Amino acid sequence: MINRIKALFAVREGRGGGVGETHSHDELHLAAAALMVEAACLDGDFDAAERATIDGLLRRHFDLDAEESRTLIESVEVAPADRHQLLPYTRIIKERFSEAERVELIEMLWEVAYADGELHDYEANLLRRIGGLIYVPDRDRGAARRRVVERLRAASESRVERPEPAETSEVGE
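The structure assignment produced for this chain is given below.
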């Protein structure tokens, strides 16, 4: 997989590919991963919770194994100059993802933005920009955000620890 990722960066840098070409699944995965890592890094800290969220999303939505997901995240993470250029990635998403898949990507990005427990203004702004670039209307972005918040709230409520019953002591011998 590492060679495929290197080849994708070569295409992005103009050493291959052409206008109007179809994009491979690897390019789609790279584009989605780059946008998710960008969202995670905007608050200045790419923490373990954000990394785990991105890993889970890549594995679940793109059917990647643990090694492929880790390699993809690391390759995008070490190329921050490329990652900050949203247009190549959003173009791939816009051209190849269906409307439902683009909304699903926005939902994944909201999950990443909330992974550290709080939403930063920069993250919300990035999601607005990405949504506009991949033609996801405000209404759909808002609905995706509400779904993520509801899922997180439900997960949080289910994790609330219930008190253990008090141990009974044996009295009298």
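Interim note for the steering committee: The chain has nine helices and no strands. The two ends are 68 Å apart (CA to CA).
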